[in-house]
């Protein structure tokens, strides 16, 4: 290009330069504006969080502001550098060059991690960690796994998820192999709508090592599905849940069973399952509850009956057998009928008074299912919240099994459930009372201490 052409081009550029500069200035905020206002939402949130966590004011606030901004800028730069090196390493043809690039990437990632640690310290932030606790109200999936031999008893929690175990419903998934269980969990962990997830792994003294091994495998699945930030895997040792028997007591054509609390029905219906009389239409719900309560299996359904209830006992046994067969858990759950010679109800009715020191000093058992109880010396057991004080008189309920009386006066123990007093006929017409508790399988357990002997007042 000759001199005249260059001179002409420069003239044109000079004519347009003010407009170009003005456009550039209009697109880029002034320095004063940028100092007084932060328009990056992510940096703005970090600054706000840091100032709130540190409760900073004055010079300290300005120092925290500077540190947060510097760390943020450094991390953003490192992100871009790592991404660029990763791109170049991916396209590099020589293995030597590729190795150097990957090494540089690792160094930058290490620097970024340190910078993140500095930013967290400055901002006063404890980060969310992989596999940490997932609060019950936030869950979208809740799974119970119980190790039984080489297989797993899998239950799927039903919404709404609740903290109180007696109100939580479960559905039986299956008695699965470890491979089947991991596949089942993997399907849930891949589905973002199923997150967050909590998985409880239950083990006993013989399966503790297996439980830890299973937890590690579940964690590996969570990492493979990139769901570890929304997954919690708990290891729980199985505490005593019962004798291994879930008993239905039948006398005079009526069915009775026992629970620690009012229980949520497996079908989600509004009427809870409670201690006392079992409606024949609800029988399957009572059976299913025992089978879908975590840790309750293996167990045996024991149908204890008098002669007058033999045909009803067969019906109960057939219903339990049908449910067990439908769930395909015959290896874990047995059903047996036990004929018993009943103790007449009239034996238990009336007023009783204690012949020995104990928790109960006197008791009036009335025909309407109500009893009035006067406590004796509590031996310090009345200090628990909800426990009945020594020498107090209270009303309660009583229930008959085939040959015993069970008395519930809402006398709380240290675990929050009721002490239930069991009475059996003793020598010379006496009544022998023992203090105990009910467990989730429905069985009663003696809580120790001397038996109480009561005599009927004539």
Helix-strand blueprint:
Blueprint: H1 3-27, H2 31-36, H3 41-54, H4 58-91, H5 95-123, E1 141-148, E2 151-158, E3 169-176, H6 178-190, E4 197-203, H7 208-224, E5 231-237, E6 245-251, E7 254-257, E8 276-277, H8 283-292, E9 299-305, H9 310-327, E10 333-339, H10 345-348, E11 350-354, E12 360-365, E13 370-375, E14 393-400, E15 405-412, E16 418-425, E17 431-438, E18 444-446, E19 452-456
Describe the structure.
By secondary structure, the protein is α+β, with helices and mostly antiparallel strands. Helices cover 37% and strands 27% of the residues. It has 10 helices and 19 strands. The strands form 3 sheets. Strands 11-12-13-14-15-16-17-19 form an 8-stranded antiparallel barrel. α6 runs parallel beside α7 and α8 (283-292) crosses α9 (310-327).
């Amino acid at each position: 290009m000759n001199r005249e052409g260059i001179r002409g081009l420069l003239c044109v550029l000079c004519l347009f330069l003010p407009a170009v500069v003005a456009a550039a200035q209009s697109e880029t905020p002034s320095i004063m504006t940028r100092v007084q206002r932060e328009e990056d939402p992510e940096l703005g949130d970090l600054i706000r969080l840091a100032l709130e966590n540190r409760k900073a004011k004055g010079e300290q606030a300005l120092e925290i502001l500077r540190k947060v901004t510097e760390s943020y800028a450094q991390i953003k730069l490192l992100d871009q550098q790592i991404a660029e090196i990763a791109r170049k390493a991916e396209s590099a043809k020589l293995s030597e060059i590729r190795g150097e690039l990957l090494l540089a990437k690792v160094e930058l990632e290490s620097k970024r991690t340190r910078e993140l640690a500095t930013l967290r310290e400055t901002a006063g932030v404890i980060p969310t960690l992989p596999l940490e606790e997932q609060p019950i109200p936030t869950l979208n999936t809740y799974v119970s796994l119980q190790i039984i031999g080489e297989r797993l008893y899998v239950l799927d929690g039903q919404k709404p998820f609740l903290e109180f175990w007696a109100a939580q419903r479960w559905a039986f998934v299956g008695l699965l192999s470890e491979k089947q269980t991991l596949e089942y969990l993997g399907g849930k962990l891949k589905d973002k709508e199923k997150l967050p997830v909590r998985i409880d792994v239950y083990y006993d003294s013989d399966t503790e090592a297996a439980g830890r091994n299973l937890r590690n495998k579940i964690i590996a699945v969570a990492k493979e599905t990139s769901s570890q930030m929304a997954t919690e895997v708990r290891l729980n040792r199985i505490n005593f849940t019962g004798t291994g028997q879930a008993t239905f007591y039948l006398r005079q054509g009526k069915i009775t069973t026992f629970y620690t609390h009012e229980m949520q029905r497996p079908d989600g219906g509004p009427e809870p399952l409670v201690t006392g009389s079992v409606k024949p239409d609800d029988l399957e719900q009572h059976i299913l509850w025992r089978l879908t309560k975590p840790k309750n299996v293996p167990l045996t359904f024991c149908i204890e009956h008098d002669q007058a209830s033999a045909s009803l006992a067969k019906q109960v046994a057939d219903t339990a057998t049908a449910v067990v067969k439908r769930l395909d858990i015959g290896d874990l759950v047995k059903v047996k009928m036990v004929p018993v010679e009943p103790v007449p109800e009239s034996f238990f009715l009336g007023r009783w008074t204690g012949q020995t020191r104990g928790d109960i000093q006197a008791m009036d058992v009335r025909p309407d299912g109500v009893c009035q109880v006067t406590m004796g010396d509590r031996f310090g057991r009345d200090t628990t919240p909800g426990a009945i004080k020594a020498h107090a008189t209270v009303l309660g309920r009583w229930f008959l099994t085939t040959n015993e009386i069970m008395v519930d006066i809402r006398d709380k123990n240290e675990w929050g459930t009721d002490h239930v007093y069991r009475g059996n006929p003793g020598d010379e017409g006496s009544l022998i009372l023992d203090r105990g508790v009910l467990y989730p399988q429905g069985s009663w357990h003696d809580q120790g201490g001397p038996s109480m002997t009561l005599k009927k007042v004539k």
